[in-house]
Design goal:
By secondary structure, the protein is mainly β. It contains 4 helices and 9 strands. Residues about 1-45 have low confidence and may be disordered.
């Protein structure tokens, strides 16, 4: 559940009133993968948001968070999501760092674009794991798919709504996030791109919208291998 509160900002340091966040937790090959997006205050401007990218000081493979944001923050993204009258009011690219229990750090480039109805995240994995290998780790409900001739897997996560107020955090059950992990190449030799979508109203996202986004966005990302 991704509710926004009066006066909510886009940065954790702005906590003075209630700030809402969506957290999506999914099992990947080597640990827990978390999606955490603070719901920003909606822009009153008619123009869609431009990418606000963090400075990336370390290498993250063949693609950066800024490049992912450029690919995802398309002018036709609202139409692809089935909400053509909306526009993006938040867009950002970054490097997300996770530390595993053994001390290994994983750096993942990612981008988020938020509209009134949907939030979308695009991330890239530059490792030796194939999508076929990952499919077996995503639970019995994961579905094998093909996107633009590349092996893919479709799966779900449950979201949590987390609110911060007066230095305290509360959480409530949220809705469903739908994920589509797609191999970088048709040979599935390692590495993948992943698109996740979830709705602000907790309605289950439209899989057709997820596939439309993937088919338009993925070929524009550096590191994607056609065929």
């Amino acid at each position: 559940m991704a509710g926004s509160s009066a006066g909510a900002g886009t940065e954790p340091s702005a906590v003075g009133q209630v700030i809402a966040a969506v957290v999506v937790v999914g099992a990947l090959a080597v640990g827990l993968w978390c999606l955490a997006v603070f719901s920003p205050q909606k822009s009153q401007a008619s123009e869609p948001a431009v990418c606000k990218n963090d400075k990336e000081k370390r290498s993250a493979g063949p693609v950066s968070g800024a490049q992912l944001c450029t690919a995802l923050n398309r002018t036709d993204l609202p139409t692809l999501l089935g909400t053509p009258t909306e526009h993006a009011y938040s867009a950002a690219g970054r490097l997300s760092t996770a530390t595993l229990s053994g001390g290994t750090k994983i750096v993942t480039p990612e981008a988020d674009v938020t509209l009134e109805t949907y939030s979308v995240r695009l991330s890239a994995s530059d490792d030796e794991y194939s999508v076929a290998e990952m499919t077996g780790l995503l639970g019995n409900t994961a579905q094998q798919e093909t996107v633009l001739g590349h092996p893919a897997v479709l799966y779900s996560d449950r979201t949590l709504a987390i609110s911060f107020s007066g230095g305290k955090a509360d959480s409530d059950p949220g809705g469903i996030a739908r994920h589509l992990m797609v191999a970088r190449s048709a040979k599935d030799g390692g590495g993948s791109f992943e698109i996740a979508i979830w709705r602000q109203d907790d309605v289950v996202p439209d899989d057709a919208a997820l596939f439309r986004v993937a088919e338009r966005v993925l070929p524009t990302i550096p590191g994607w291998t056609a065929g």
